[in-house]
Amino acid sequence: MPPVTATPDEGPPAIPLVVPRDGTPEVTETVAALDAAIAALRAGSGPIAVDAERASGFRYGQRAYLVQLRREGAGTFLIDPVALPALAGLGQALRSTEWVLHAASQDLPCLAELGLVPTKLFDTELAARLLGYERVGLATLTERVLGYALAKEHSAADWSTRPLPPTWLAYAALDVELLVDLRAALAAELDDAGKRSWAEQEFAWLIDAPPPPPRAEPWRRVSGIHRVRGRRSLGEVRELWEERDALARQRDVAPGRVLPDATLVAIVQAQATDAAGLSGVQGLTGPRMRRTVSTWWRALERARALPETDLPQPAAGAGDGPPASVARWADRDPEAAARLQRARTALAEIGAERNVPVENLLEPALVRRLAWSPPADASPGGVARALAEGNARPWQVELTAPALSDAFAG
User: Fold this and answer.
1) Tens digits of residue pLDDT in 144-189
2) Which of 108, 227, 232, 377 is deepest in the core (most CB within 10 A)?
3) How many CB atoms lie within 10 A of CB 197?
4) How far is CA 232 from the centre of its chain?
5) pTM beyond 0.70, yes or no
6) Of 101, 61, 67, which is closest to residue 84 (Cα–Cα)?
């Protein structure tokens, strides 16, 4: 499909794309249909567009509930991983083909759970970031780069629904309709900007990157926890969070659907002396939620029975490492705070010069870690080694090591 030249401010309006060019395919949900899809995709040509739909906000985990694939000469396939949970054969058949995804880091984990792991990748969102696009959503890029408008009204749908409505299936098919066209256009822009090698290093990193470590004390991310004061109350938040998480996992529903964060915090703030005292807490007044009061009361009792030594500290990150809040750096280590400010200023200048967002120029967490504990050898070579050990890619090391060396030296 030839690209249409259009920008948000000039030229013809974007062409609405509401129906897949070949029609909406039926869902592949039998082994025979999957075998036919594998044969067709293997016989196709060029890169393969890949997407996955999850049920974030509805289900506990981040598993895929639909996998969309499109390849030139094969067409589009919508595969149901609930009916077909073992897709290793599909993954093996497509393993040597370049996969095109948008925001690949979001989909690669759930695809890997199904046995779908690429060996070569092109991420259209990441490519757009490296090119300096301010807005990198798929619909925005498709409109700006190709001149076609994609609807996004089902992006937050519960994709665990069965059967999936026809309008949802059309939306899912359109998500891979233009991915390969977008990839071609962005690849040409990367070449023109001299950034193709940067992108290739980033894409390779996405494939090989280890999974992130489990978040320490995830209960501290409860929205509104800043309104809770005292270690005992923080212990109550932790116990309520753990009870909610266990129930959500057991029921396979999003934790917020078991108990919203606002209600969890309100339970702690109520300082009830018995279960009846929770009945008036906002969020527990409906018939369904009133039946859960005893569950939350038992969690509070467990927290209140904890010895003082087992209660959480008021703030996370109080060890030898940097404070979680950069605003607290100056109190803990003024020199480190000054190093971080100099490093951020230097990186902002490089990002502006190269038209790359600072967060893509170098991982912010790595910058903070090195600013707090700079390498003993703060020469450009020593900083380069520290960056490489922190998994910075070669293009990032080359661009940032000299400036960070100056920043750390003061």
Assistant:
1) 999 999 877 777 899 999 999 999 999 999 999 999 999 999 999 9
2) 108
3) 12
4) 33
5) yes
6) 67
